[in-house]
Design a protein that fits this description.
The complex is a heterodimer of chains A (about 575) and B (about 575). Chain A is an alpha/beta fold and about 575 residues long. Chain A is about 65% helix and about 10% strand. In chain A, a hairpin with a 2-residue loop joins β9 and β10. Chain B starts with a helix and ends with a helix. The mean pLDDT of chain B is about 80. Chain B is of the alpha/beta class. The chains are: A alpha/beta (about 575), B alpha/beta (about 575). Chains A and B meet through α2, α3, α4, α5 and α7 of A and α2, α3, α4, α6 and α7 of B.
Chain lengths: ~575, ~575
């Protein structure tokens, strides 16, 4: 994992601490074993026995201190790295292409941020270091055994291959199950997110019971997988117990034989027993480790899936060529999930021109807006915005040129002021007040007890739809870019307010290039040019009068209103 | 304090049912198995030790036989434990999750205020913690407790003084754990809140991606996440620091246990009170005792943490449900007044947002609700739907709203939101949410009426296209048409629409206008509208201003009033 490289020294320190700890622990038993032999002649060795006890006690104190402080430092070091992954997830949400983000469900991201990260952390912090501890203890114990009596060890080593084969077989099954468990949990979370976000629908249509049933079905399948995992675990524990106990018993038998033949003293036998339990622990621990490693790998891969999504590339500054055209589309086609969303679009918009995109919903207008604002950029053809070619890598420059107001712009859970300025510090209080006046929200903000410092809750549920939209307009006004994109921005406003806003933003917009998507004649009528879309193609374009005279699709869509006037 | 915890645990335990027998049996078998193994191990060591010293093979073989027997027992009981435990724990998780989800669904009103991130944190991490109380954390605890109690008993039996030492360190540890419990709980609470906050930030970044990208804003959001992650790691550090202090004491007692029995054993042997085999046995037992009991220390810490997590679920479970169990289940539709409001007050965050002194809405009429944005139109509709808390007297078809069974009451209304919410289901399933028993003819009828058919039929997968899958999205107008189809399929007595036509093009709108025309003579329709056409067409106009009704009457009456409606009509004649 790349995050570890930064902390090599710290991990090395941990490793050394673990080795030291294991050695100390074993030394204790070595001394203990020697003392056993002295026991028989306690009157002779009395002082040495007491010395031994003193040594053991002081080692115990050291072990005690390490026991207490090692987990603490381990946690602090690992936590720092895990936090980097948490940050990286945030970074990914911010920096991956919009299209990739749209394809992810938030529940999935959250499952990764919660359970997968926990799993990875537990592995590195506990499982891995526990295993290392067992490994060192086991290896050192093996060496000690070898030094005392090699026959003893050979008997022991013979049991290892059987155990390893057994654990590899059971590990294989595990991997698939764990992956599908994560997958199902992730699905379940996406489902939950969807329901919790749409509780109003669920309640107003009396659907609680229906969704509870669906949830029950879904969680039943999660449960089934989980139960399967436990069944494997049972098999696993069987194998584990055998691999833990088999060596111990074999060593006991061999040890007893050796002692009775006089090749081993009783004290040495005691040491051997203590050592053999260390080696057996290593074997059992290896199995646990393999088991935990499977879980870790599954979670780690799932995190990588997210972390490996390439971020949007960014080039260094590119100056736009001076041109009369604010926006040029040349033979642009765009597919979304194999559905052709836009088909061979050609458009030229001059500086200062106001144009309108019209068509029935789903005709491709909003997709076009996303292409202009460089939220999507994997299209065929050529798009140039203010002289900057909209190709991958240029999106930040393109986005600097535009102001985008969407139908349901998101309000962040921060103060109203920050929502309007979007954290740019270049705006003065005067600018902010001016912007909110233009959007017609100034009086309302003043009426709030905390004014501009009022915190927007949960995507703006403490405001009405109209108020939310007006905050977005104030936000857009502040950006003061040359090209303004309005995507059905007044749809949530009432007639009065719409007129007020249209009047007040008229001054702001009159020298701007404006591309607006609208359904209301009042918004469209005064534009310089109207593009009429059908199924991702431009079928008619011209001024309002031209299109009315044409008596084509546009005329028919607005017939009622045009005739009514 | 104590009894509250017990209540909390008792509440949690009910979710293991009906597998509590399996659960209990699993743990019992586990304890018995490891107990037998421990005893066998002790006996074996005593015999082997004695046998080797006295060169008596019988003793040695007896010892070996005993330990093999113990090993056999623990192997089988271990596997049995996982089977029984697995069955009960997987059910436990399922039950608890379903129950918590049910609570979220049925919780009273202000659920809308709870952030999804919080709910998801509860449903994942806090539930996992709760499960571990009777699961993963309990096992080492019970195992440690069981075997160390057995060890203590055996040690006591062999030598009372060493027994007393072991018992007192054991008691010391329990005391320390209890002492740190509250601090631990507070730290866990803080950590979970920090995680919740982080998830909330992730959510904001995800939802606001279009705004952030189009505004080229990158640094600040990174800063949010950095702050949020820092909070998490700070909370975790505090938590660890408390654990460090706790561990310092726990391990101290453990190590005393390591040294004291041994020293005492040697002393007793030297004075001739104990035989060599017994000393062997005692030392082995006390080491084993420490080994098991070492498991117990962290387990105790973890359990007290898990209880803090469980508390969050428990608190959620104690929140009041919407009253949906009992009440009137019949709608008497012979009253001329559909809705009758009296002294209604709606509070939001302790602020009065809507007051209605008296209002009667007649049956089978089209009522347009108008007013500036934020005047209370949406609140009015949500009030009728019982989605927000209110006080006062509301009668629906002459029966008090509170007397209805909630499900019945909501079935009287069909609601179309301002920004329609479409679930991540297929288009067809989204429409069927309106009436799950609808026949395919009925569905066909509404999809044409609502204009869904025009776009849905063209999609590669047609009505089976799943929304949200692979980022498949619908335009605002399309969503609204689906929402309309859904509401039409429900065919309720009262139709509530919130600025419904706003995102629709003219053609779709006229389809809906036609539908409204067809419906208005046998349905009550309440529209929070801003198109003049809709407003002029209404039978009654209801004007809100700053959360109060300022005008109510037929368009003709209001025109003579020279009030809000009059101004609306006259300012806007060119629309």
């Amino acid at each position: 994992m790349k995050h570890f490289k930064l902390y090599k020294m710290k991990y090395l320190f941990l490793l050394l601490a673990i080795i030291f700890y294991s050695t100390l622990d074993l030394t204790k038993f070595l001394i203990l074993g020697n003392m056993v032999d002295m026991f028989y002649n306690l009157s002779i060795y009395k002082e040495r026995v007491y010395l031994g006890i003193i040594i053991i006690s002081s080692i115990s104190i050291l072990v005690y201190l390490i026991d207490v402080f090692l987990p603490y430092f381990k946690n602090i070091i690992v936590e720092e790295d895990i936090n980097k992954i948490r940050l990286e997830i945030g970074n990914k949400i911010i920096n991956i292409p919009f299209k990739n983000l749209e394809k992810m469900q938030f529940g999935e991201i959250l499952t990764k941020a919660m359970s997968d990260i926990d799993r990875v952390q537990r592995f590195i912090e506990l499982d891995l270091s526990n295993f290392l501890m067992l490994l060192f203890k086991g290896v050192i114990a093996g060496v000690i055994c070898l030094l005392i009596n090699w026959k003893f060890l050979i008997a022991f080593i013979l049991t290892i291959p059987i155990i390893i084969i057994l654990s590899i077989i059971s590990g294989k099954f595990e991997e698939k199950l764990l992956a599908s468990q994560k997958e199902e949990t992730s699905n379940l979370n996406s489902f939950l997110m969807d329901i919790i976000n749409n509780l109003v629908v669920v309640k107003s249509f009396n659907l609680s019971n229906k969704f509870l049933r669906i949830f029950q079905d879904k969680s039943r399948s999660v449960k089934r997988i989980e139960y399967n995992i436990y069944q494997r675990r049972a098999l696993f524990s069987f194998i584990n117990a055998i691999s833990l106990l088999l060596p111990t018993i074999i060593m006991m038998i061999v040890g007893v034989l050796l002692v009775s033949k006089g090749e081993l003293t009783t004290g040495e036998f005691t040491i051997m027993l203590a050592m053999s339990s260390r080696i057996a622990n290593l074997l059992g621990g290896t199995q646990d480790f393999i088991y935990n490693y499977q879980g870790y790998k599954t979670s780690y891969n799932r995190l990588l899936e997210l972390i490996n999504v390439p971020e949007e590339e960014n080039r260094s500054a590119i100056l736009g060529q001076m041109t009369d055209h604010c926006m040029i589309f040349k033979n642009v086609s765009f597919c979304y999930n194999n559905n052709k969303a836009l088909d061979n679009i050609n458009m030229e918009v001059k500086k200062g021109e106001h144009i309108a995109l019209v068509g029935r919903s789903g005709c491709g207008k909003s997709t076009l807006i996303k292409l202009i604002s460089s939220l999507y950029y994997d299209y065929d053809g050529q798009i140039t915005i203010n002289g900057i070619s909209s190709i991958p890598g240029n999106q930040r420059f393109v986005r600097d040129q535009i102001t985008l107001v969407l139908q349901g712009n998101y309000l962040f859970p921060i103060s109203i002021r920050d929502n309007i300025t979007l954290f740019s510090e270049k705006y003065t209080e005067k600018d902010i007040i001016e912007a909110s006046k233009v959007a017609g929200i100034y009086d309302f903000i003043l009426s709030l007890p905390e004014g501009f410092d009022t915190i927007v809750e949960n995507g703006g549920i403490n405001f009405s739809g109209g108020q939310r939209q007006r905050l977005c307009i104030a936000r857009a006004y502040l950006k003061k870019s040359q090209l303004v994109l309005l995507d059905e921005f007044t749809s949530a406003l009432d007639v009065n307010m719409e007129k007020q806003i249209l009047d007040s933003i008229e001054d702001w917009l009159h020298d701007k290039t404006l591309i607006t998507v609208a359904h209301r004649l009042s918004t469209i009528r005064n534009t310089d040019r109207i593009y009429y879309f059908e199924n991702g193609r431009i079928v008619e374009n011209g001024t309002y009068e031209e299109l009315c005279n044409l008596k084509g699709a546009f005329y028919h869509l607005f017939k009622g209103e045009i005739v009514g006037r | 304090m104590k009894s509250k915890n017990m209540k909390q645990l008792k509440w949690l335990f009910q979710f293991i049912k009906p597998h509590q027998i399996k659960w209990g049996a699993g743990f019992l078998i586990d304890i018995i198995g490891s107990g037998i193994y421990q005893i066998c191990n002790g006996i074996a060591l005593e015999n082997i030790g004695a046998g080797l010293i006295n060169s008596d093979k019988c003793f040695v073989f007896y010892g070996l036989k005993t330990i093999m027997f113990g090993a056999g027992v623990i192997t089988i009981t271990g596997a049995l434990f996982w089977l029984l435990y697995g069955a009960s724990i997987s059910l436990f998780r399922e039950n608890l999750k379903i129950n918590t989800f049910k609570k979220i669904l049925n919780k009273k009103h202000d659920i809308v205020k709870d952030s999804p991130a919080k709910m998801l944190t509860l449903l994942n991490q806090d539930i996992d913690m709760s499960i571990s109380i009777f699961g993963d954390e309990l096992r080492p605890f019970i195992y440690g407790l069981g075997t160390s109690l057995i060890a203590i008993a055996v040690i006591f039996y062999t030598n009372i003084w060493i027994g007393i030492i072991c018992l007192s360190t054991f008691a010391g540890n329990i005391f320390i754990t209890l002492y740190f419990k509250d601090k631990q709980e507070e730290a866990v609470n803080k950590r979970q809140k920090a995680l919740e906050n982080l998830n909330h930030q992730y959510n904001a970044l995800y939802e606001g991606a279009a705004v952030l990208k189009s505004g080229n804003i990158y640094e600040k959001p990174i800063q949010w996440v950095t702050e949020a992650t820092k909070k998490v790691s700070d909370a975790k550090k505090t938590e660890r620091f408390i654990a460090l202090k706790q561990n310092l004491l726990i391990q101290l007692f453990l190590n005393l246990n390591n040294v004291l029995p041994m020293t005492l054993g040697v002393y007793l042997y030297s004075t001739g009170i104990l035989e060599i085999g017994k000393v062997f046995f005692l030392i082995q037992m006390s080491i084993q005792f420490i080994f098991d009991y070492q498991l117990m220390g962290p387990a105790l810490i973890n359990i007290s943490k898990a209880i803090a997590g469980e508390k969050r679920i428990y608190e959620l479970s104690n929140e009041a449900d919407e009253d949906s169990e009992y009440g009137v289940e019949e709608v008497v539709n012979n009253n001329e007044i559909a809705l009758d409001f009296e002294n209604i007050k709606v509070m939001y965050d302790d602020k009065l947002t809507l007051t209605i002194d008296k209002l009667q809405i007649p049956k089978n009429k089209l009522i347009a609700v108008v007013g500036d944005s934020g005047a209370g139109k949406s609140t009015f509709l949500k009030l009728i739907l019982q989605l927000i808390p209110w006080t006062g007297q509301l009668k629906v078809f002459n029966t008090a709203a509170r007397d209805y069974k909630l499900e019945k009451l909501r079935s009287i209304f069909a609601y179309i939101e301002q920004t329609p919410k479409i679930l991540n289901l297929s288009i067809l399933d989204n429409i069927l949410l309106g009436n799950q028993e609808a026949t395919s003819e009925e569905v066909k009828e509404v999809v044409i009426k609502a204009g869904v058919d025009e776009f849905a039929a063209k999609l590669v997968n047609g009505y089976d296209t799943i929304i949200g899958e692979d980022g498949f999205g619908l335009s605002g107008g399309e969503c609204q048409r689906i929402a309309i189809a859904r509401a039409l399929l429900k065919d309720s007595l009262i139709l509530l629409m919130d600025e419904v036509t706003s995102a629709l093009d003219n053609k779709s709108e006229s389809i809906i206008q036609e539908t409204i025309e067809r419906f208005r003579y046998n349905h009550t329709i309440i529209i929070a509208a801003h198109r003049l056409k809709t407003i002029k067409n209404a039978d009654y106009i209801l004007v809100f201003k700053k959360g109060e009704i300022i005008e109510f009457g037929s368009p003709e009456e209001l025109l003579q009033n020279n009030g809000y409606y009059y101004n609306l009509i006259n300012n806007k004649t060119d629309l």
